[in-house]
Amino acid sequence: MSGEIAPGRPGNLTPEQEEKLRRLWQLVFQVCGVSQLENGATPATTAAAAPAPVEKPSPKKGRMSIFSRRGRKESDPVESTPSAPAGPPPSVVLSPPKEGEHDKYGQTQHFYDTLASMTPESIRATIWSMVKHDHPDALLLRFLRARKWDVEKALVMMISTMAWRANEMKVDEDIMRNGDAAAAEAEKNATDPAQKRLGHDFLQQARIGKSFIHGVDKTGRPVCYVRCRLHKQGEQVEESLERYTVYVIETCRYLLQPPVDTATIVFDMTGFSLANMDYTPVKFMIKCFEANYPESLGAVLVHKAPWVFQGIWKVIRGWLDPVVANKVHFTNNVKEMEEFIAVKQLPKELEGEEDWEYKFIEPVPGENDRLKDTATRDRLLAARDMLVKEFEDATAQWIQHPEGEKAAEIKARRASLATQLREDYWGVDPYLRARSLYDRTGVLLAGGKIDFYPKAAAQETEKTVAELTNGVAAVKIAPAAVPAVETSPDDLD
């Protein structure tokens, strides 16, 4: 496990990469309506020509959901509520695409649609909501690396992702805020059959352990296991599959601690047959990682794939970006798995040495009571908003003074504020996010501390205590350990 910072991350940028990051912050501020220059002006875009105007899209009907997916009420919280000047959407014009360029997910159109349909302040709030405990620069750098340091393409991808999070999936205000507790409530008490089914399907995937996070690989990356044999096409409705996929990905983000910023996925194909193959959720998962969670995959292990998977893989590989496809490795036995995950940290069901089995713990009554404390939530968010503004101000100064006497001082200020934002997030987290299995099992602890092997740690502690206790007992009963002392009547009280 290495503590080195990988290239292209905060603290390890070349001068050229740092300049790209400054330019992206400039454009993000412009989209969000944030004044960033000392004279109060906003920067000009680096665009060359304007495409044909895009009409504002008509509102789309939301899908039925057990988690208020039809729309957010005014009382519903957002993780961070930074204010920004109100007004018309900013005019951001991008350079025309180069000949032969392909926009796989239509993100450029989505970008302009987002500018027409979302206010600058709502885009800004969604960005800071996604930051969570991360370094703000780290989020922007993911998009820059994914788009090979093309600033405009990174901006398009980033803003498209914000629309997906806020409008399509409602990641923070719904999926993560409600968690599995809301699914359990819907499964038990919902009067609408569709809502009851969604709650049941969501929980069923968690209960059987269709996919779960456990332990780390040799580089310290969290490992997400997917038991492919447990999926049957049609057993769960499509929306519940998508929601659970996003829920697991988002939960894994909470388990990332710098310098680790990616995860490993193990597709356990033991017992896989054609009855387990379902292309629709596979496509959704691919789109999630390629379009909305860039630079999040460290490695993908396909374990014990049967011969029938060969033709399926040819189809799937054709959907994958070459960069993602190159992260896929096929393993057939524990020796090949050991190249990525230590045998002692590989569960026995995969022929490893770890005596661990997945068990789902149902939501505990009262575990999410702090979500109801809106007064504390709003107070904490207001304080966080001040930190956000301070970071934005420092970033504006950093854009204005990339070099010179003030540069080092400004960089230090930004780094300090990023640390404060990270620590501050964990104070507000219980008022924004429903507790998860990983909170209940002691993997994700208060203050953002992580214990990937809580049971193992507890067993080790018990073993140490037992050894110490036995050692003390041995000392007490060993004749040579207790010197002989003569007692006389004068010694007695």
Automatic annotation (TrEMBL):
Residues 42-53 have a biased composition (Low complexity). Pfam families: CRAL_TRIO (PF00650), CRAL_TRIO_N (PF03765). Residues 42-105 are annotated as: Disordered. Residues 213-358 form the CRAL-TRIO domain. InterPro entries: CRAL-TRIO_dom, CRAL-TRIO_dom_sf, CRAL/TRIO_N_dom, CRAL/TRIO_N_dom_sf, PITP/CRAL-TRIO. This is CRAL-TRIO domain-containing protein.
